[in-house]
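Regression test attached.
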Amino acid sequence: MAGAGGGNDIQWCFSQVKGAVDDDVAEADIISTVEFNHSGELLATGDKGGRVVIFQQEQENKIQSHSRGEYNVYSTFQSHEPEFDYLKSLEIEEKINKIRWLPQKNAAQFLLSTNDKTIKLWKISERDKRPEGYNLKEEDGRYRDPTTVTTLRVPVFRPMDLMVEASPRRIFANAHTYHINSISINSDYETYLSADDLRINLWHLEITDRSFNIVDIKPANMEELTEVITAAEFHPNSCNTFVYSSSKGTIRLCDMRASALCDRHSKLFEEPEDPSNRSFFSEIISSISDVKFSHSGRYMMTRDYLSVKIWDLNMENRPVETYQVHEYLRSKLCSLYENDCIFDKFECCWNGSDSVVMTGSYNNFFRMFDRNTKRDITLEASRENNKPRTVLKPRKVCASGKRKKDEISVDSLDFNKKILHTAWHPKENIIAVATTNNLYIFQDKGN
Amino acid sequence: MLGKGGKRKFDEHEDGLEGKIVSPADGPSRVSYTLQRQTIFNISLMKLYNHRPLTEPSLQKTVLINNMLRRIQEELKQEGNLRPPFTPSSQPSDSLSDSYREAPPAFTHLTPPSAHPCDLGSTTPLEACLTPASLLEADDDTFCTLQAVQPAASTRLSAPALPPEKDSFSSALDEIEELCPTSTSTEAAAVAPDSSKGTPGESRIQKSEGPQEGRTDDSRLLDSLPGNFEITTSTGFLTDLTLDDILFADIDTSMYDFDPCTSASGTASKMAPVSADDLLKTLAPYSSQPVAPSQPFKMDLTELDHIMEVLVGS
């Protein structure tokens, strides 16, 4: 397993790192979401300050270069601003919770970005030509005195420096009382869902003043509330199917054809609790922080605090695969409860062929599990491995007992360095891993 | 090993907490289980009520912590320790369940002070003290915040106190520091005197299980942790006061609504934060003459008089 592991003997190499170098992390720079677009050419990040930064991959000549193109800043814009809810005397954070790309239909790119309360549709378009040679206007825009015009000419488009403009095309507001945790674009590319703690709404991308509530788990008496929605996603192929996960470790699959309000699930995915692992924290660690369909649509993956589970949509009573992310934390749950780390929401992602899954951990470690070979690998995102094309060294955490050389003991893990957000290029072996305020891009060495 | 009077190191204690649930049937492990549960219970309450975010708190986190508290309460219930509500001489093991019963209204938007009064020393049934959340949640859009916490809950929780042992006090202080990092450590210092003054009339409420000496360190933990609630409560209450002031600027009757519990919490907030030295002073002489329960009220009356003078004078 030395060097290789985690997907057909891929050797992961450092490619780039984006973000500030210093250890002093500005709160606004904390990365809160990472997402590749459908082609993988664009990589978007959202941060706590409400900004979206989009990186574009350079189109290099694949014959001559060893690695794929680098990602460079393509566009930066302020997506959300902080707001104040005067009724409750509370701030509404501008932090970007999720970004989802729309498939490209024309020259422009579209993405949805959301904070706790408002979803926005952004259009990102390029401008690399401008008209020159007006008759009545100077080049700087001032109007010419018509009496000075002696000849006529036809304005022509001339190349200019590339300008990337982002403009908000739709703002979907005032539909969520609670905090939005997920948005998911339907395979019909016309509708999308947004989910908060208690409700899921269905929107049409063109219509901002109306949304349909399709799931509502709010009890009549809020004191009876024991479960919240933690994530939701549309099926990649069936436009009538979506799933949502809960804080109790269940996933419900719903069919919108069944009824207008999908409070009754079509399928309920839940694994019975392992009695030997019962503790005070069983419920909390079973809370699902992310759910992702496989590209094929046949499987879905869920991330709870300690593990990643792969479910076959045809089997509800247990997952088909379970991977332990950091089982060594099981004996530390009380401390992790106390310092709130137990509530950290880790995300997970599939590679393009659904053969490998990836998720983050603490100490800037991230893990990959190869579903075919059943091998797993732990890697670290750190500036120490900064040399491009250096293969990343696998890391190992020593749970207890004698610590071997190069192993790290559980007690020396830095729980402030957590990797919550990771993304995998839809077609190639390129991954984006977000530490607190840096974005790391790793690539497969052998191309 | 627990129960033999030996001083346990914090690390061992930590391990006991971290481990899986031990079957409640065993002897010493039963104690460890109870300790574990007690600590988790207090941590949970501290999380719920010691938090004044500028933004809305996470509903998921609140729900999970609430479920934890409920589960512990269920266990306590099942262990058959439910007794009639608090009286100064009663055995304390139900104090947690009693206090917890007040916790569920964490989801309510605003808990009016009228819900509090019965808890400081009366024997009114609990049900009469709880404010139905349905009355409080105005409409669908009311997001349930964690603001107003009944001070009674905190005063009850600060009750489980044991006679301090000065030789282990500093280690307990260290434990407090370790378990309550950064923001809470100063608050613990600041509020502990409030709690000890505010709950003097209550007896040494202890859990009936387990040897005393083995729990000394933890009990001091328990002392300081719940104490944090008071300040939070009062701050939350103050926020409401301020809102009232803004809305009804010419009719400032809020200061004159004399309500023992309201006043108690209001007073507590006016106390200046104290240093660790004061913490030492207040915790050390715990066995000495307890402060009369009416003292907070007396102080409040003084405050009212003062305010009256100011107003009349101007």
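Expected vs. actual: identical. The first helix of chain A runs from residue 282 to 286.
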